[in-house]
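Hello Y.,

Per our agreement to keep a running log of every chain we model this quarter, I'm adding this entry. I've kept the format consistent with earlier entries: sequence first, then predicted structure.
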Amino acid sequence: MKLKLSLRIWILIVAIVLALLAIKPSFSSGVVIKSIDSDSPLVKEGVTSGQVIKAINGKPIKTLDDYAKALEEINSQPGEKRVEIVTDKAQAVVLTNQSLGLSVGPLPRTNIQTGLDLQGGARALVKPDVEHISEEEMQKLVDISRNRFNVYGLSDVSIKAVTDLEGNRFMLIEVAGATPDNLRDLISQQGKFEAKVGNVTVFEGGKQDIADVCRNDASCATIESCLPSGQGFVCRYRFAVYLTEAAAKKHAAATANLSLDSSGRYLNESLHLFIDDKEVDSLLIGASLRGRATTQISIQGSGAGPTREAAIKAARASMNRLQTILLTGSLPYKLEIVKLDTISPSLGTDFTYAVFIAAIAAIFSVSLIVFARYRKIKASLALLLTSFSELIIILGVAALIRWNLDLPSIAGILATIGTGVDQQVIILDEAGGRRELSIKEKIKRATWIILSAYLTLVAAMVPLYWAGAGLFKGFAITTIIGVTAGVLITRPAFADIIKRIES
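Predicted structure for the entry above:
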């Protein structure tokens, strides 16, 4: 006798297929560029974060070990090194004696995105230092902060506004692969930049006064010199800044009435640079610039270290920070770090593996218990099938909406599986219950019980979405996705399967 599948069972099959397409397992090889330093020689060759490295100097790169060996071989070469990198979108050949400035990671095998808990990195819950902040003001703060991280070349950054149950607004920042100290340095300072001639502010950081900043061009942004100083070295840097017409006119007005110094080459006032109201440098103003509306000026600074290499690194870091503040402007508020966490990637991977093994073992154990209780191998297999299909659908929806699966999300998946098994046992109990009722009536009674439980659970998850300033959002989202898929797809299909078994 040919088994005819009902519409509900077909809906389940289609949902599983669509979920698998959304997850999209990949068998490609290579390593993905997580971030790239803004002063890396590869930037000018079109290499960006998110690209997949396929080969280095003609050798295939399939794993992180291949990448590490290729770098070790490059670093062992004396003097200037020739590096040829082939990615999925670019091919770059550079001659350099400096670091490539790349941070790489394994190529994702699916479209499922994992959160910081599983990747490793740092997370900060940040609050603006103001009593009240509107939704629009918070979004502006998020946008400026995101621009800052983008300027630094970081790709694995998540910045979003969150609200707790009391209505307080926070900014949640997650950076994969970063340390708490790195994250604190990036967000704790307001970064207010001012350039003054005497007591007059001639321009500030941000698009209103800064048209552009030279960053990745050695002809206008470079380390000028590195000289011994005391027990170490000091390196000077210089980069060009392009002012707007309005800022150029303010600079001209501020210098129009200045006189020359004793050398006759410079004006008697310098251009003083301030960050967060602290003077970081002062520049001599050439006599030819008096009263002149110039749109291009040169900013200088320095970095010190115990060795020449350390001084160069400090100078580059100082230059990058100053360039970033000039480009993005200051933050509109000072930020208070409410909570700062670090997560080990190895701990997250081990935990994920253990959780999914536990989930699979739990599903099999429950199926065995169901078989022992009802003595029905078909019903036990049906429960096993629907539980696994529910897991696939949840992961498929998460991949489709690009939701980052973190530890609360995984906890939500486990809770959903437990709820699903419980409701399927209700269907089994009702189906084998009172004999005076038809199988259709029994399933209908079970459906109403499940629907009531579903509405109660969703009502409980809605406030949890905002609890803890959004830190439990993953649990609420995956739980709601799971129970909704269960009520609309897997439970009706399971009920139809049980109908056929009982009939």
